[in-house]
Amino acid sequence: MTPLLQVESIAKMYGARIGCTDVSFDLYPGEVMGIVGESGSGKSTLLNCLAGHLQPDAGAVRFDTRAEGLRDTVTMSEPERRMLSRTDWAFVHQHARDGLRMNVSAGGNVGERLMAVNARHYGEIRDKAIDWLGRVEISADRIDDRPTAFSGGMQQRLQIARNLVTGPRLVFMDEPTGGLDVSVQARLLDLLRGLVREMGLSAIIVTHDLAVVRLLADRLMVMKDGRVIESGLTDQVLDDPQHAYTQLLVSSVLQV
Amino acid sequence: MITVENVSKTFTLHNQGAAEISVMRDASLSVAPGECVALVGASGAGKSTLMRMIYGNYLTQSGRIMVGDLDVVTAAPRQVIQLRRTTLGYVSQFLRVVPRVSTLNVVAEPLLATGSDRDHAMQRAEALLLRLNIPERLWQLSPTTFSGGEQQRVNIARGFAYPYPALLLDEPTASLDPTNRATVLEMIVQAKARGVAIIGIFHDHAARDEICDREFDVTAFTPDRSV
């Protein structure tokens, strides 16, 4: 089987300081990978390098494109990369306002991404937007409201709808449940799990919440000081951590 | 179906003076299709450890663990994930689920995860819950609020939803009343008849005698910890 994403020796420096270095892994279709580590460990830097938001200093990120198979997204042209991020990729930001247009209606937020891939028929776009708002449990009568009128949890669900409406194959998520109440988090986790399964999505989730990765991720990478210090099956890394830092991380949590 | 060859396991506790604790040495065990083997030994002897090594959530330092034709010790994570989806089931002692998901969906999930038709998965989940006496009014609720015995039965229903050819059972009858206990034992006997290879931990002696073909004493492979 061809990996959907093949990451090879990615490195990003901030001057003399290491952002992340020597990160390699393969992600296969349908797999969900978690990246954990404390703040400053390089997990967000890595995610941004993978998603094309940051230019890595070294390494390759090969994505299995529909037309041409594995292509290095680091060296492809900017328009090509932008096209990928509008179609096959999605990026769910920690703060919904970074991923939404706050002065455009909920329906417009979802429809805009469809228009970016050349959907033109107004009725169809609106129907699809309503369908997706329903899937993320936002009632159709809120379609004309702006996200500013939504609660934090609703904004996050709207951001997910906006991202998934074009049927991406790979979703990058940066602390998708951060800053939400525990009950809202649970609902969002349930929603994400269902969507991952039904759409056969692959996802890379950056979080510091071990309970979130336990429930969402098949595989886990633990980062410290810009390096991956341990990786494996999620429950194996959490139940039988090998590295001193991972042991500390797992034993510091009340219960995961 | 399941073959464990000369496996050893050591825990290194880096944050407690790098203490090395050897918990298992040179254990070997083989379970054929249709056979049920009970792991026995005092508490702390390593029964659950061996079970977790077979399931792949504990790493094994040396030896081989073949489940079907996959060596769990050296397999890549995605191979273990696939193994768990279609070959090796595990009924743990405690239920761990996403909050807010209905009991029916919790039980149907192993089927949905393997691409089963939704109606079929739901029918199968209903049949299992009915058989295990989970009242229908609870089906739409999350099992997180259920009693210990109810949670255990939901866990068993989930473990039996997909027809795995190999099963690991950790104390499946521990907190059940006689009726439900009899139902679970009957389900295990039927699984054996279908050719499922089973490894179980049963503190319930009568249950062990009733359904297990052999006992495997892990104490024999536990390094002496008195020194």
Structural commentary:
The complex is a heterodimer of chains A (about 260) and B (about 230). Chain A has about 260 residues and is of the alpha/beta class. Chain A is built from 10 helices and 10 strands. Chain A has helices spanning about 45-50, 80-85, 95-100, 105-115, 120-135, 150-165, 180-200, 210-215, 235-240, 245-250, and strands spanning about 5-15, 15-25, 30-35, 60-65, 70, 90, 170-175, 200-205, 220-225, 225-235. The longest helix of chain A has 18 residues, at about 180-200. With about 230 residues, chain B is of the alpha/beta class. Helix content of chain B is about 35%, strand content about 25%. Chain B has a 5-stranded parallel β-sheet with strand order 6-7-8-3-9, with helices on both faces. The longest helix of chain B is centred in the last third of the chain and has 16 residues, at about 180-195. The chains are: A alpha/beta (about 260), B alpha/beta (about 230). Chains A and B meet through helix 7, helix 9 and helix 10 of A and strand 1 and helix 2 of B.
Spatial separation of the terminal alpha carbons of chain B: 37 Å
- What would you call the quaternary organization? heterodimer
Q: Give the low-pLDDT segments of chain A.
A: none
Strand percentage of chain B: 15-25%
Helix content of chain B: 25-40%
Termini separation of chain A comes to 33 Å
Largest sheet of chain B: 5 strands, parallel
The sequence of SSEs of chain A as H and E is EEEHEEHEHHHHEHEHEEHH
